[in-house]
Amino acid sequence: MGDRTDLPKTAALAVSRGTITNLSSPKSPPLILASASPRRLALLEQIGIAPTAVDPADIDETALKNELPRDLAGRLARQKAEAVSARHQCAFLLSADTVVAVGRRALGKAETEEDAGKFLSLLSGRRHQVHTGVSLVTPAGKLVSRTVSTAVIFKPLDDAEIKAYIASNEWRGKAGGYAIQGLAAALVRKIQGSYSNVVGLPLFEVANMLKGNGFPLWTDIKR
Ligand SMILES: Cc1cn([C@H]2C[C@H](O)[C@@H](COP(=O)(O)OP(=O)(O)OP(=O)(O)O)O2)c(=O)[nH]c1=O
To answer: Where is this site: Important for substrate specificity (predicted)?
Structure first.
């Protein structure tokens, strides 16, 4: 947290207070964001949605034996939704989980310089997948989930590039040890699929899930 891959100051302040006003429309129903990720809050803000409250889930994110990375992202998003929805009634609730995968291997979040170095060496010059599971609970208690995958191709990285990126600290707490929304954009040769999905929330799909379940978007405001 606290690096320049985080979000605008207004939203960051809002998270620390725990409760923010819904800016999407005066008539919008309550929406809880079950995530501690400032990036997710900023992404929702980008499409005109400011959650009524931010209430992160605290769950064990360990993969099950033989669980594929894509399945892991879906399961964790669902578990986050289930854990937090028990505390909120009559509201929409959104949760997500982002997993970076090289083949069948999920890389997890980089917490140390050693993690970051290992992950970047693995990603160097290859194509990997970023899976984000998203779950939505409606005010009636219905749970809707989907998982979106984006392919990301890194340029081959030399030792100096890896060292310089580690010094930036932007990898801290990020799945796979990088943040595409920051300096790492200069290392990404190509992506196939949703960009926002890599940052932490596939906006097109999230908008469709919300709209399809009765949450009004900016496109629904009568002019
Ligand atoms: C690959 C990538 C990940 N990330 C971030 C998004 C997520 O915050 C994080 C993946 O961890 P998650 O477990 O998905 O999310 P989180 O722990 O930050 O928040 P919460 O569980 O409360 O929802 O990595 C980026 O910001 N940029 C990137 O390019």
So the answer is: 39, 98, 181
Q: Which CATH number fits domain 9-220: 3.90.950.10, 3.40.50.300, 3.40.50.2000, 3.40.50.10490?
A: 3.90.950.10
Ligand 1 neighbourhood includes 98 CB (under 6 angstroms): yes
- Are 153 and 190 a contacting pair, CB within 8 Å? yes
Cβ of residue 101 lying under 6 Å from some atom of ligand 1: no
What is the C-alpha to C-alpha distance for residues 17 and 94, in angstroms, rounded to an integer? 19
For residue 7, which of 166, 179, 190 has the smallest C-alpha distance? 179
Residue nearest atom 24 in ligand 1 by C-alpha distance: 174
Of the pLDDT bands very low, low, confident and very high (cuts 50, 70, 90), residue 53 is very high
Atom of ligand 1 nearest to the CA of 132: 14
Query: Would the pLDDT of 155 be above 80?
Result: yes
What does pTM read for this prediction? 0.91
Domain ranges, ordered by start, for the chain: 9-220
Predicted confidence (pLDDT) per residue in 15-30, tens digit: 433 444 444 555 689 9
pLDDT digits (tens, 9 = 90+) for 199-215: 999 999 999 999 999 99
Angle between helices 203-212 and 38-46 (to 10 degrees): 70
For a ligand 1 pocket test, name from 98, 136, 172 the mutation site with the most ligand atoms within 8 angstroms of its C-beta. 98
Closest atom, ligand 1, to C-alpha of 59: 21
